[in-house]
Amino acid sequence: MSKNRGVVYIGPGKVEVQDIADPKFEAPNGKKIDHAVILKVLSTNICGSDQHMVRGRTTAPAGLVLGHEITGEVIEKGADVEMLDIGDIVSVPFNVACGRCRCCREQDTGVCLTVNPSRAGGAYGYVDMGGWVGGQARYVMVPYADFNLLKFPDRDRAREKIRDLTMLSDILPTGFHAAVNAKVGVGSTVYVAGAGPVGLAAAASAQILGAAVVMVGDFNAERLAHAAKHGFVPIDLSKSDRLGEMIAEVIGTDEVDSAIDAVGFEARGHSGGEQPATVLNQMMQIARPAGHIGIPGLYVTEDPGAVDDAAKHGSLSIRFGLGWAKAQSLHTGQTPTLRYNRQLMQAIWHDRLPIADIVNAKIIPLDQAVAGYATFDKGAAVKYVLDPHGDLLAA
C-alpha cells in the first residue's frame, strides 16, 4: 500500500488534502478487529452533508477525515471475512452497521445500536457518528465487511458503470428511501423541495416508482434548468412565496400526494435569511390530507451557527398541529442503505436508472477536492466524484 492521502476538515470554511495514516484493522476505540477489509478507494463523492460540517454548522472537530460515499476494491481482509475476496469491487453503505443488534436485524441499519457509543447510528467521516475514519481518501477500512458491503457481480462491468454505481453509497438510496416513505406510487403527484443531488435522486426515484408528475422546487436557476432536462417540472421559488399556487398551475390543485424535503436545516426563505423550519412547514401545507412526507434533508441536534438559541439545539418552530389536523405521516432519519442498494444496483446494471447523468456527476482528482467543495458550496448544479488514484479519469 502506498502513502495514504485524504480530505481533512481544518475548521469552518476550510478543508485540505493531506497525508493521513494508513488504515488498520482497528476500531475507533483501538480494539483490533478481524471482521473488516481495507479498500483501495475507486470513487468517493462530496456530499451536501459534508458541506454542513465544512461551513462550521456542526460540532465537527478539526482533523476529521471526511467522506462517507465510498466505492472500492478489496485489497486486504481480516480473518473473519468469509464472503469477500481480494479484488472484489464493492459499494460501501454510508451507515456503519454491525448486522447483529436489534435495529440491524430489522433492517434499520441507519440506527445501529453498537457502532457509536454516543448515540444510535454510525457513519464514516462524520461528526458524532462513532469516530470512523472517512473515505475521501486513497484507502479506507470498512468494519463488519460481510454484512455491510455490496459486491458487484462483474469487475469490468462495475468499472464501466462506476459513475452511476458510486451513487449507491448514499444519495440514491437516500432519495429512494424518501420517495418510499412519501408513499410514491403509480399515478402519484410529487413535490421535491431542493434541486441538489439528493433532491434529484429523490425525483428520479419517484419516477421509477411510477409517479405521474414530479415537481422540483429551488431558488437556483442552474439547478432547475438541469432538473427540467431530465423530465422534472421545475418550480422557481424566486418568483413567488405562494408554493401552492405554483403547484396548482402544474396539476390543477394546490396539494400533492407526496412531498419530499431534500433541503434540511439550512433552508432559506424569500427574505434571503435562514428559516430552518420553512420547508417542513411548506411540506405540511402542500401535502394533501392523509398525504405523506419524506424528509431526507439533514436536521442536526447541535448547530453552532443557527439563527436562534432554540435552533442551535435542533428545536424548530414547525406547525405540527397542521400536520396532525391533516392526518399526515412524516418520516425522518438516516437512510438504511442496505434495505435498497441491491435493488437499485440492478436498476443501474440493466440501464434503467442513469443516475449519474440525472445528478450531473463530474469526476475530479482527489487533489482538486478543495476546489470541488468551494464550487459545490456556491450551488453548482453538479455532483463531484473524487478519483483518488486517477483510474477513472484515465479510463
UniProtKB/TrEMBL annotation:
GO molecular function: oxidoreductase activity; zinc ion binding
Keyword Metal-binding: yes
Domain named Alcohol dehydrogenase-like N-terminal: residues: 35-153
Pfam family, one: ADH_N
Keywords: Metal-binding, NAD, Oxidoreductase, Zinc
CDD domains noted in UniProt: PFDH_like
Source taxon at top rank: Bacteria
InterPro entries: ADH-like_N, ADH_Zn_CS, GroES-like_sf, HCHO_DH_non_GSH, NAD(P)-bd_dom_sf
Transmembrane segments: none
Cofactor list: Zn(2+)
PANTHER family referenced in this protein's UniProt entry, alphabetically: GLUTATHIONE-INDEPENDENT FORMALDEHYDE DEHYDROGENASE (PTHR42813:SF3), ZINC-TYPE ALCOHOL DEHYDROGENASE-LIKE (PTHR42813)
Protein family per UniProt: Belongs to the zinc-containing alcohol dehydrogenase family.
Protein name: Aldehyde dismutase
